[in-house]
Amino acid sequence: MGSIATKNNRAIVFPNIYQHRTEPLELIDKTKNGYRRILAFFICDPSGLHEIPTTRTVPPQQPGVRKAAMKKLRDSGDLDLPFMMLETITKDLPSTISKEDNERYRMELMEERTKLNGNTRA
């Protein structure tokens, strides 16, 4: 259909409704190292018509981040709860996600998008 040349220090932005494919990277000067960065931004409609989970409503999911936040809260002295009560409350929080599970979910998403887009890299 068409193509867009990538330029140094530039971003290509388009809505998710468009199918796309990335071609293999080829360096002009093969004696130097090179890389390509691909960032995906999933923009949400801020109108409030849909309930979208955000960092305001979803607790940290990485075990280390949650543990550090709980320690900071416990050590701050601002909490008037005994440690046992804090543990009782926090045990009902949704479980954290391991780095391995996160990577597995990421790979499943990529495979699903590849199948959806007809075996193009999405």
Automatic annotation (TrEMBL):
InterPro entries noted in UniProt: DUF4246, DUF4246_C
Chain ranges of the DUF4246 domain: 1-65
Source taxon at top rank: Eukaryota
Pfam families, alphabetized: DUF4246 (PF14033)
PANTHER family named in the record: FE2OG DIOXYGENASE DOMAIN-CONTAINING PROTEIN (PTHR33119:SF1), IFI3P (PTHR33119)
Protein name as catalogued: DUF4246 domain-containing protein
Species per Swiss-Prot/TrEMBL record: Orbilia oligospora
